[in-house]
Design a protein that fits this description.
The protein is an alpha+beta fold and 317 residues long. It folds into two domains: 237 residues, Zn peptidases (Aminopeptidase, 3-Layer(aba) Sandwich), CATH 3.40.630.10; 66 residues, Elongation Factor Tu (Ef-tu), domain 3, CATH 2.40.30.40. Helix content is 26%, strand content 28%. The chain contains seven helices and 19 strands. The chain has an eight-stranded mixed β-sheet, sandwiched between helices. It has a six-stranded antiparallel beta barrel with strand order 4-5-8-7-6-9. It has a three-stranded antiparallel β-sheet with strand order 10-11-19. The N terminus is likely disordered.
Length: 317
């Protein structure tokens, strides 16, 4: 990607992409968001209530006015856990090409290493290792090294999934009058936080519908610069009447979007649908190439379209 001088519009997203927050260790992201909200809330159009701490683990809920809809954005990323010696175990589903640059820190300090995928010829089984000057302490989490690239049209870096979803939520907070924004954990590795966050929102605020601020993928039916994806299904199928409402609102407000149909993939929506409360949900987000690699790539038009669509939906749902 050709590098060009940029305006700094996406500096927040760039910072988010470099924060160490693999599934199960979202503390650094939680702390960053709390500090960001404390600093920026005075510039937002409407007052916010911040919910976190005991009973919420490393998750955060922002409440604006009288919320009817909750936006979920997961804070965690894929990565790797150091096993014994230089062995690695995947966190979530990262791509595992040899040569990827990884970074991690233990009690000795920070180290940059290189991923090595070793295939056994007889069985075809692939084991994962890292190449580094020293062994990390067992249990250390490694993540892709951030390498931000930006030109007039595209942004490329690791962890657009889901730092772009967080970025969208924080941009939405600037103007949101009524609604909840939820920053959740563990999404990339099986979930585990959304059901109790949902329970709190249902019982405390009587919320029963959600938008999932997450990132989809470029495919044969989803293309760059055509607007964010409104997903009609992935491995789960949302309630069609709710999806139709969302499409109708987008059409009436002339906000570009693409409809997505997939048979695999998932998000925080899984826990919403499987929990005891009756919630509607829809996955809406910009689409990227090079999913779960250090080179995830999105188009700026789709990023701005995502922000615009969320603003419109939160006013009208």
């Amino acid at each position: 990607m050709e590098k060009k001088k940029t305006s700094g519009q996406y500096d927040l997203l760039k910072t988010l992409c470099g924060i160490h927050a693999p599934s199960g260790n979202e503390v650094a992201m939680k702390d960053f968001i709390l500090k960001y909200v404390k600093k920026q809330a005075k510039t937002w159009k409407h007052e916010v209530k911040v919910i976190h701490g005991k009973g919420f683990q490393d998750n955060i809920i922002l409440i604006f006015g009288k919320p009817k809809t909750a936006v979920f954005a997961h804070m965690d990323s894929i990565g790797f856990t150091v096993r014994y010696g230089k062995q690695l175990v995947k966190i979530g589903g990262p791509q595992t090409a040899s040569g990827y640059k990884l970074v991690g820190s233990d009690s000795i300090g920070k180290q940059e290493v290189e991923l090595k995928s070793v295939e056994e010829k007889k069985t075809g089984y692939k084991s994962l290792e890292y190449i580094g000057k020293r062994d990390f302490e067992r249990g250390t989490e490694l993540v892709f090294k951030a390498n931000w690239r930006e030109d007039a049209n595209h942004i490329q870096c690791c962890y657009m999934d889901n730092r772009l979803g967080i970025y969208n939520a924080l941009r939405l907070a600037e103007t949101l009058k009524n609604g909840a924004i939820v920053f959740s954990s563990w999404e990339e590795h099986g979930g585990g936080s959304v059901s109790y966050l949902q329970k709190h929102l249902q019982e405390k605020y009587n919320i029963s519908q959600a938008l999932i601020s997450d990132i989809s993928w470029i495919s044969d039916g989803v293309h760059y610069a055509k607007g964010p994806v409104i997903s009609m299904r992935d491995s789960l199928i949302p309630r069609r009447s709710y999806i139709n409402r969302i499409i109708d609102i987008a059409n009436k407000n002339k906000v570009p979007y693409q409809l997505e149909i997939e048979g695999s993939g998932g998000s925080d929506a899984k826990e919403l649908q499987m929990a005891e409360y009756a919630w509607d949900w829809c996955f809406i987000g910009a689409a990227e190439e090079n999913v779960h690699t250090p080179d995830e790539k999105v188009h700026k038009k789709d990023v701005e379209g995502m922000i615009r669509l969320y603003e419109v939906l939160m006013k009208n749902l």
